[in-house]
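Worked Example 4.2. Consider the chain below.
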Amino acid sequence: MLNVGVLALQGDVREHVAALESVGARAVEVRRAEELAGLDGMVLPGGESTTIDKLSRMFGLSAPLKERIADGFPVFGSCAGLILLADRILDPSTDRQGVSQQSFGGIDMSVRRNAFGRQVESFETDLAFKGLPDPPRDARSSASGPAAAVRAVFIRAPWVESVGEGVEVLATVRVPAGGSGPEAGTDSRIVAVRSGSLLATSFHPEVTGERRIHELFIQLIKGEA
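Applying the procedure from the previous section yields the following structure tokens:
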């Protein structure tokens, strides 16, 4: 059984633990650097990216996690986790000393925090998502082919504004030009990416009962995807 850590400093920790266990992994809550030992992969949960960044540095997790990611350690980040995996944050928060928030990095992409709007502008929509395992037969949609759409929940979500050559775009969402929300529009925003052993989504698969993205991550750890 794979041992997959969940960074348990803040955010949707319990939801990711449940999702990982439902797809056959052993979930390990991680709060200290020594708890990284023996892990096959790691999940960075949705939450507040600024808070997770500060706490990871306070608890001595930031530097060793950056090193492991640079060495090819498999990591999946949702929402805030996507921000933490970005090499570039276009609108970083700053603390009272003027120090900008940091990320762990690893994915050659530029992201914008809270890009879809405030909490009250949160929304759900169906997304086509490349490379997912087939859903159970009774969950398939004949209109969308063998892989049914992913029901995606966006809560004060970031989006990806640009990616480097080695980054694969897995999902996009259409929004009104210059606006927010799920309505059809003229702008296409990147909301899921993969780069080698790193996987990231702008949305929260852990809160909808969608398990195929966690299954994809497990396959990625095993070298099967």
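The two ends are 18 Å apart (CA to CA). Residues 139-146 have pLDDT under 50 and may be disordered. Compare this with Example 4.1 before moving on.
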